[in-house]
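Form 12-C: Joint structure prediction
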Amino acid sequence: MAPEQVFIASAVQAWKQNVERADKIFSGLSDAQLQTEVAPGKNRLVYLWGHLTAVHDAMLPLLGVGDKLHPELAAAFLTAPDKAVAALPPTAELRRAWNEVNDRLLTAFRNFTVFDWAGKHTAVSDEAFAADPLRNRLSVVISRTSHVAYHVGQVALAPK
Amino acid sequence: MAPEQVFIASAVQAWKQNVERADKIFSGLSDAQLQTEVAPGKNRLVYLWGHLTAVHDAMLPLLGVGDKLHPELAAAFLTAPDKAVAALPPTAELRRAWNEVNDRLLTAFRNFTVFDWAGKHTAVSDEAFAADPLRNRLSVVISRTSHVAYHVGQVALAPK
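Section 2 - Result
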């Protein structure tokens, strides 16, 4: 395995581990448990699940994979804070969206070449990318891995 | 910049961003604020700061950089849970250890070659590494980046 392949595989492994960690927690929660706040007055578990789903969905266009699969989630979980939107999607729908989006990303990751990974994401211009090659696709995945971990750390604090 | 260099720089950038995020929070806290629990009955901020310092210190031998700079931190912040050890180091000492350890790591990161990064960390045998090349130095840094993010997410919940 060449070093560049090793580095890609290492970053993708960390992504998978963190998403699986989130999945293991969220998938086992009842509707009632999903209403729990991670700490007094803070985000509810259902909001963080929807938020991660919406953020991962937005990775599809950002990585040039395709359109969002669930653009409807952004209003409740991305642009609005928790409790600002009264009607959230049912748990079964959220679970389906979460799985769909993450599966779609993993499929794309398997098909990216080394040059796809080192190539620019879609939110940066050619000029800006020439000046800063770190604005590449692998950076997006590394950054979103920290984002999952950040919220999983919060979810771990929720009263059982 | 060759792809393997881009990937290393992307992972190191994420490490730096997350450590700086933690640094910005912890360095600005008073002794009294450091006693705050991130959520009722959960770890105090001082414990998480010491815990991150101890975990980063342990990266030095794990990455083959050298011995721990502050092995004395492990007893209070790594092997024991919060509040199990009554006498924690003074804030100034903790701040110095945090800075020293993170500076030492960054210096090592700057000197690692591509093959150092792709090489095995010290807690894996040659045989196990041959079977799983993802047990490399860059993986350690990627994994510890998620670890920082996980706890920074918790720290962000602490009552102000």
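Section 3 - Comments
Chain B touches chain A through 41 residues (CB under 8 Å). Chain B is about 65% helix and 0% strand.
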